[in-house]
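About this split. The held-out portion is used to measure sequence recovery: a designer receives only the structure tokens and must propose an amino acid at every position. Recovery is the fraction of positions where the proposal matches the reference. Here is one held-out target exactly as it appears in the evaluation file.
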């Protein structure tokens, strides 16, 4: 999840099914918006980690979602950002742990102001920092739930920024893409620590395990 220094381990669909009820119950007494907390140091983390399908260019009003639907956008924005399309798609699969419905996300954000938006689960601070000087600099974080292509574009450039922060050499036996994914989930400061040999905590380890599990599926999705 982009914009927060780590997030809870994927808890399954049962937990998310009760969230809309809780969000509706509290929406009348909570409000405002808040930037997601940053990572331990450096760039904030991004995550806390198109037929009968919804239009991949913008609208997500139906809430139906399959990351593979956005393979054309993944290939386009990954190429522009100079990153692996397979990595970007794998991150989208990793972030597909909750319903990506715009109304749901906004209701939950009223209950939890630091919640992430969009199919790439990006926090406000990460989005605002990533968009600077980029083609989508005029866009707003609040648009992410409705514009899935924008969410893919922002995630691609966030991963680009993680790549730029990597040292020339690192320890731990991770691939470059794995470290970038860890940076997406836990932030640039933590990514640098992992590159120096620090052991990831349980949340980051879970994110890396799921990335590896999703890797082959992500490659097949972007191969077409």
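Reference sequence for scoring:
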């Amino acid at each position: 999840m982009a914009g927060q220094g780590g997030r809870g381990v994927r808890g399954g669909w049962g937990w998310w099914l009760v969230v809309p009820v809780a969000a509706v119950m509290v929406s009348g007494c909570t409000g405002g918006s808040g930037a997601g907390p940053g990572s331990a140091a450096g760039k904030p983390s991004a995550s806390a980690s198109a037929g009968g399908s919804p239009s991949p260019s913008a609208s997500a009003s139906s809430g139906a979602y399959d990351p593979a639907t956005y393979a054309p956008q993944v290939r386009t924005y990954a190429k522009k950002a100079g990153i692996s399309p397979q990595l970007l798609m794998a991150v989208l699969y990793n972030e597909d742990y909750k319903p990506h419905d715009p109304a749901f996300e906004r209701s939950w954000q009223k209950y939890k102001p630091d919640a992430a938006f969009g199919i790439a689960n990006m926090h406000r601070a990460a989005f605002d920092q990533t968009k600077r000087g980029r083609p989508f600099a005029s866009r707003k974080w609040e648009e992410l739930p409705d514009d899935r292509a924008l969410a893919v574009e922002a995630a691609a450039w966030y991963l680009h920024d993680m790549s730029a922060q990597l040292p020339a050499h690192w320890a731990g036996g991770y691939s470059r893409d794995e470290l970038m994914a860890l940076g997406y989930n836990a932030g640039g400061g933590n990514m640098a620590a992992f590159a120096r040999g620090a052991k990831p905590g349980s949340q980051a380890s879970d994110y890396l395990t799921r990335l590896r599990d999703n890797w082959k599926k992500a490659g097949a999705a972007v191969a077409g």
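Annotator remark: The mean pLDDT is 81.
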